[in-house]
Every structure is written in C-alpha cells, then in structure tokens.
Amino acid sequence: MSLAFADAGLVFPNGHRALQRVTLGVRPGERVAVIGPSGAGKSSLLRLAACAVRPTEGRIEALGEAPWRLGSRGLQRLRSHIGVVHQAPPIPPRLRVVTAVLAGRLGRWSAWKALGSLLYPADIEGAREVLGRLELADRLFDRCDRLSGGQLQRVGIARVLYQRPDLLLADEPVSALDPTLADAALGQLVAQSESTGASLVASLHAVDLALKWFPRVVALRQGSVVFDLPAAQVTRALLQELYAGEGSVLPTQGNDLAALGALPLGAGGNVVPLPRPGGRG
After folding, report:
1. Per the CATH hierarchy, to which homologous superfamily does domain 1-81+167-181+198-274 belong?
2. pLDDT class for 104, splitting at 50, 70, 90?
3. Among residues 248, 247, 253, which one has the least CA distance to residue 177?
4. pLDDT confidence band for 105 (50 / 70 / 90)
C-alpha cells in the first residue's frame, strides 16, 4: 500500500475529535477523492497521510514506512517523497514564483544546491515547464505577493508537479479557481499520477469534480468513513444523506452530475451550484 490507516484517530489538544477509527488503504497509482461536508475531517485525514501530525490512536503507514517509528532523518526522507498541495499554499509572499516551484525538490537536494538555488534558480526551464502546464509560465519571475489567490494556488500545484512525489496529497487544491481552471488543474494532477505511478488522494468540495476525475470516492462525516465506493456506485441517496446537514443543494463546480454517474439533488432534477466568492483565477 502507498497509504494505510488502521483504526486511526486524531484528537486535538483542545479535546476536539477530528477523526475516529479510520481504516482504509490506497494502492500504488490509485486515485482517491475524499468528500464530505465542512468539518468532516478531510483536511485532518490528509495531514495524517502527509505525516504532518501523529495519530492519537491506531496507526498509519506511508510508502511502506511506519513514519512515527522513524528517526528525524528517516521521517524527513519519507516526507521528501510525499507531495502536498495546500488549499492556501504556505509560500512566503516575497518569494519569486520560480523559487517557490523549485522548492518542491529541496528535500532531495544537497544543502549547497538548495542554498544556491535561493540565490540563482537551479532549474529555470524545469519550473517554466510545469508552470506552462497550468498557464502560468508568464509569471515565472514575479513575486508571489503579486499573484491572485487562484494563481498562488496553481503555483502550489506546480511545485508538487515539479517535485514528482511517490504519494501526492491535495487538500482542496482548486478551491480558489473558476470551473474551467479547476478542471484543467485537476487534469494535470491526474496526468502526473498516471505518468509517474504516484498515488493521488485529494479532498474536494465539488462533488462533480470528484466523480469526474477519481475512480474511487471516500466520504467522511464527523470524522468517520461513511462510504468507500467506486465513483460509478455513488448514488443520489448516499449523497443526500452525506450532505443532509448542508441543505438540499449539492456543492459542485457546475458540471452535470447525471452525466457523471450521480443523480442530481436540486429541485426539478437540476443541480444548482453553491454561490462562490469572486476573484477566482
């Protein structure tokens, strides 16, 4: 397994339980979408998968390793093979885009090469290539504080594409993008998974994107797995129960769910997308 959870639970210091008794596995090269209402535990699941936090209960394995049995160097080495796309990329605002992208391989470079790349980018053409796949090649030498939220999110995706990890995790990776860019960006993550054999696990707010791009869908609610099914078996009844607390409107990016294998939930058989903030791109 690229990723395995065995009765994994996570309780924060304030007593809030984010995950409880989660058991699931992800095979090498598999693509899995994680869906569920707000506060379901999707981000917490990915933080455990990324070895960013230690489970309170149970155990996890990533890329065949038990991360919390490793020493600090072993854990650092393991993390260098795991790529994480954050909803809000932790990129210093004064950093140039090219440097932010090349940071994807810092964990695999020597200290001298990493330091030198901060002074003069070590692989300008490599950064340009992955940015081009996300329609950002023209922003190569811009400072990150001059980008929109959507552009910055795409820089975060480009950094992971450049990293070429063995396990690719994405936490709401297209939340700041309009439907066209969101679809294209997810297509690039999927293409990376297919070309390198990396497993891809992504939490997504938009159910239509999950059903379109991911053969397997895991649903969470209140920190527990509600269902774990092939996308073609995700039905109206399952989705209605999962999102019952968020009203009758299913969160989508505007695609036709009926064409993607799930029945619509809106009145009259039409899916009505949730309102989205402006300034996306």
Report:
1. P-loop containing nucleotide triphosphate hydrolases (3.40.50.300)
2. confident
3. 253
4. confident
